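Data card: per-record layout.
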Amino acid sequence: MAEPLICNECEESQAFPKDIVELESSLGIPREELMVDMEKGKRCILCGSVLEEGNIARPI
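The structure for this 60-residue chain is written out next.
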């Protein structure tokens, strides 16, 4: 399993994690899918944005 990651934007702004229910609502993605993607390192664990090679800040 990949390490949880955060995006550069969250790293730079020292963002706090958003509530998973808020992310589910704002992104329109089921909670289970969001959590799986975050655990696999496909989404930022703070804001839920899709991570691409260029916007990964660091492993948590």
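Known properties of this structure: The two ends are 13 Å apart (CA to CA). The chain has one domain: 5-59.

See the next section for split statistics.
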